[in-house]
Amino acid sequence: MKDQAESLRRRLEARQNQTMARTIAILSGKGGVGKSNFSLNFSIALSKREKRVLLFDMDIGMGNIDILIGEHSPFSIIDFFENGRSLEEIITIGPGNISIITGGTGLMKLFSFDEVKYTRFNEAFCSLLANYDYILFDMGAGITHDSMKFLLCVDELFLITTPEPTSITDAYSAMKYIHSIKKEIPCFLVCNRVFSSKEGKETISRLQNAFMKFLDLDSVALGYVPDDRTVSRAVSKQVPFLLFDSKAEVSQAIMYIATRYANHSFGEDLALPKSNFLQNMKRYFLGK
User: How many Å apart are CA 206 and CA 144, to the nearest integer?
Assistant: First the structure.
């Protein structure tokens, strides 16, 4: 019994000393803003900085990460729940040496956790948190009652918008909804498809001012991404634009954003909370 207790104590200490992955939900207020393309290329940019990255496609029934990389994964998260596959088995290695879990169809079942499913996912995901530096959830456009649970669990939110007024309004509405339920999630803002640096800065500033004035919410201006023909050319070739042309303006912008984020060089005094993804899952999925 003494040996067993000592072994358990060592395992617990080892787990406590492990660095847990930061979990990030990448969302937008509406579709068509280039969110999945950002998620994919940002993941690759982090990997280029020697970070271990897992990209989890959460676009329910309509995931397009496979399409963007021109590869079809043999497994999805549904195989974990319905076919007894481990999370490690359903992970595929994508371009830029990032790991990918596809959403597949029928992903609504992921949000209907019973005690058995939750326990299994919790235990399996715990090992993933120790194996990666960042786990990114590419969320579906907008917010549903079920996807909200995941948004409340992650450590940080990346809110993607474009300069279009409808995109800005929808991004504000999405954050207002999240903030009404949980106020302490750090929010990073990215403006995609800008025609000038001035347009990108002004768009983000408008959102930041609205967040502060109406929600009393601080947010971080992470950066902006130019409207670059390289993106459409890369999508046609089904190659991430960062790998299609690393010297393109859009690729340089993504690398800059990834560097700022990885180095925590935002210029703002932002204290990122300790990762509590598993504890949050227990609270928001099981109500405990």
Answer: 25
Answer yes or no: is 26 within a domain.
yes
142: pLDDT strictly greater than 80: no
Asked whether residue 12 is domain-assigned, the answer is no
DSSP string, 151-185: HHHSSEEEEEE-SSHHHHHHHHHHHHHHHHH-S--
Query: Tokens 């993607």 belong to which residue?
Result: 160
pLDDT band at 11 (very low <50, low <70, confident <90, very high): very low
Q: How confident is the model over 215-263, as pLDDT tens digits?
A: 999 999 999 999 999 999 999 999 999 999 999 999 999 999 999 999 9
Beta strand 134-139 pairing with 22-28: parallel
- The one-letter code for the residue type at 192 is N
Phi/psi-derived region of residue 34, left when phi > 0, alpha when psi is between -120 and 50, beta in every other case: left
Rounded to 5 degrees, φ, ψ at 132 are: -130, 160
Share the mean pLDDT of the chain: 86
Q: Residue 123: which domain range?
A: 20-160+223-286
| DSSP β-ladder status, 92-93 and 99-101 | antiparallel
